[in-house]
Amino acid sequence: MLLRQLEYLSALARERHFARAAAACHVSQPALSSGIRRLEAELGVQIVRRGRRFEGFTPEGERVVRWAHRIIADQDALRHDLSTLRGGLSGQLRVGAIPTALTVISLLTAPFRERHPLVRISVQSLASREIVHGLAEFELDIGLTYVDGEPLGGVRTVPLYAERYLLLTAADGEFAGRAEVGWAELADTEMCLLSPTMQNRRILDAHFAAAGVAVLPSIEADTVSVLYSHVGTHKWSTVIAHAWLYMFGVPPGMRVIPLARPSRAHHVGLVLAARDPEPMLARAMLDIAREVDVRAELNTVLTRHLSGS
Whole-model pTM? Predict the structure, then answer.
């Protein structure tokens, strides 16, 4: 069995298309198909459901794909391990981050690159469930997501900070002069919020429900930037996590007001697959996370903006 054949199979599983998989592997489509057929002959099972186009994998094929991902990941881990003996880490660190945590990712990636200049970093904006899947399928090295909310499966977690929730609203609006706002008070406010597919929105809905209300926003979006663009018109308010202030701050004419602390805190942190040994690049990111006090950095930003309000 050749590693190259497993790489062909892994590319096909990722692309779900023979021609695109061949292009990703820099070979012709006949060469890729021939390599996978040789793999089938060696293992004695049919891996690919064949028709006029790619139709998926057989049950045996799905099992082989999972092993292919694992073997390729172990090969990468070996190379990274040996690279440290040659004078430093190299390769690509693949990070998946929920959109609401992308605002702080540079607190980790900037010092990481300073220490490991030969490593390239790829950051993808993904839902929390996609991050868990990517770690399990060896498509990601590490994730940045909620670590104490919805089930994460077999992962190791490293909490970084607990979210604080703030109302971002017009400085001269209905809550002018207030030092704190209750969750129930937002029931009749024109709101824009993230869509229900986002875990942040599901967390907010749970806090509203605990206060005995349901908030139906007039604007829903799947990115933080869209919320800010609407709030900036002074026609809507939104609930933000304090980490968003690190990147977006407070638009002119707006202010942030702390919301009453909910009974349960939600932590954002790093997650990585529970494997032994840990991938070298993921371990290097954990070392950075232990040295950077993300919580203190965000609290400093929060204090500055509350003082400005």
Answer: 0.71
